[in-house]
Amino acid sequence: MAKKKNEAWEWVKTFIIVLAAVFLIRYFLFAPIVVDGLSMMPTLHNGDRMIVNKVGKPNRFDIVVFHAPEHKDYIKRVIGLPGDKVEYKDDTLYINGKAYKEPYLDKYKRQVDDGPLTEDFTLKDYIGQDRVPKGEIFVMGDNRRYSKDSRHIGTIPLSKVIGDTHVIYWPMKDMKLLN
């Protein structure tokens, strides 16, 4: 009888340890997220399920999840880091005066025939400053004409960033690692 009680207690302890490990991993390291909307098309589709990495700082062009001012979580691409000067001219991104290619936009750029995919702007046009403020990032959706991003809600404090994401795990046909 004592052996059965001891075995049951071992199973309960194992269950508690596994549950605690899952909670800690989910809360501090990784979390699932579902893409809601079309603002990251063609890179991400409505309903894609992804894993958010909560460890580390976002890098330029990472896709990040953050708490938006509307008390929702948004998913966008990091364009400007703290201290960066961001500008668009003739559908080309310039960061600190250097032109950058954005291959993730090529598909939409080919489809647009009534002007640029991304209108010309400087940071001053949207945030009233020449550079991304310290401790904040400038984000944009890949579906530039239909994305509510830093051009509308301002720069995002790093403290509001949940993490970055590089893995689509569902639906199976779209499973992939993102650059």
UniProtKB/TrEMBL annotation:
Residues 9-170 form the Peptidase S26 domain. The active site is at 39, 76. The keyword Nucleus does not apply. Keywords: Cell membrane, Hydrolase, Membrane, Protease, Transmembrane, Transmembrane helix. It is found in: Cell membrane; Membrane. Gene3D superfamilies: Umud Fragment, subunit A. This is Signal peptidase I. It comes from Falsibacillus albus. The gene is lepB.
